[in-house]
């Protein structure tokens, strides 16, 4: 029976820890894509071949060096219902692709949920490390160490000119996708965000929403990640992302200071209106909830609200998602019902 412990609690343990610049950078993530040589890629492999790949990669996790990262719990996707899969996606423990399309797919998750190793997703192997705040170098160091352990046991698909071979051409080369999730409300409110994001795209980075490619940037949360995986080595990719994110952090800090100095009363009114709506609304859609929670988070960061912790807001960002709402209340809900239960949940959390 697949372990379901990861779908019961909204807040991953790693999210409760402090990280550098955590009032602006919510999290740092590194994901490495790999495929085994002499094996068909997942989209072309038979069920038997995928099962063999799963067994082979699972055997690697018996290496004693893996124990230094804590116990890993296996989760087999074919043993989960659709709701549990959706919750794992909402917690960023698996990709939408693994949840929707993978055959013989599995994920191995650490106790604190900071490490997840996906098998038979778009690629045979995807190693993901998550850290709170701005710790992209730390996330890369850990992912690289785990990648080395696998490389000691299996042969990866590799070309001397192209680098690591992946199912999607955009990952060929290093197979590395490094990203940070940033909360940038002040840049949005001061009208600077489009200029900043346009500049980001000029230096080999891309901007996505909270769930990556194709998702909307709700609640002023933006995922900044490398777009180039071929032609740069891993250290260059991490260094480029690190430098750009530092500049965005400084711009966001300056914009927040400007809002406080030039329109403190208006900012206080905006924050308190959102706080009031969240505390008393009878129904609320997910998009509005995300925006109101963003306002309140900004109010906490600016010292305009002093009785709420970022941990509560992190919990609500997960708990108000459609999958987790239905998990909490043990019901399959229509969108209108979710809006009612979302408001109920937020009211309860805010009053506590």
From TrEMBL:
Organism listed in the record: Paenibacillus turicensis
Matches recorded under PANTHER family: ARGININE KINASE 1-RELATED (PTHR11547:SF38), ARGININE OR CREATINE KINASE (PTHR11547)
NCBIfam families cross-referenced by the UniProt entry: PRK01059.1-4, PRK01059.1-5
One GO molecular-function entry: protein arginine kinase activity
Known function: Catalyzes the specific phosphorylation of arginine residues in proteins.
Protein name: Protein-arginine kinase
Assigned EC number: 2.7.14.1
Cited Pfam families: ATP-gua_Ptrans (PF00217)
InterPro entries reported in the protein's UniProt record: Arg_Kinase (IPR023660), ATP-guanido_PTrfase (IPR000749), ATP-guanido_PTrfase_AS (IPR022415), ATP-guanido_PTrfase_cat (IPR022414), Gln_synth/guanido_kin_cat_dom (IPR014746)
